[in-house]
Amino acid sequence: MHEYGIAQEIVSTALECARAEKAERITRVHIEMSALADESEDSLQMYLETLARGTLAESAVFDIARVSVSAQCLDCQTTFTLAELGRLCSRCGSAGVVMQGRAEFKMTGIEVE
Ligand SMILES: [Zn+2]
Questions:
Q1: Distance 26 CA to ligand 1 centre (A)
Q2: pLDDT by residue (tens digit) across 1-35?
Q3: pTM of the predicted protein model
Q4: How many other CB atoms are found less than 10 A from the CB of residue 37?
Q5: Cα 88 to averaged position of ligand 1 atoms, centre (Å)
Q6: Using only C-alpha atoms, what is the Rg of the chain?
Q7: Which CATH number goes with the domain that contains 107?
Q8: What span, in angstroms and rounded, lies between the C-alpha atoms of 82 and 21?
Q9: Are the beta carbons of 83 and 51 closer than 8 angstroms?
């Protein structure tokens, strides 16, 4: 499962940060998920909780925020944000749209105690 690999990466990054800050436990993990990602938010949440068991992140809340992605139209060069897949250019209606910044998942921060 793709979500499992993503969850593993998020949990290990969060634990590294917590160790660097000499934290006793992680209370919250902030995660940004691209609005275009087709992974299931529910399974990601489930894997995160499973992987966090027995670690500093055991009782953490995983806060997944959907963020829109910036895109550029190849025909009219307009830059706009995409909130969902399969959108056309907001200005000229062209389907020749390239997405910028494909990072689909990102741990943006943790809160610790
Ligand atoms: Zn356009």
A1: 44
A2: 589 999 999 999 999 999 999 999 999 999 999 88
A3: 0.80
A4: 20
A5: 8
A6: 17
A7: 3.30.2320.80
A8: 36
A9: no
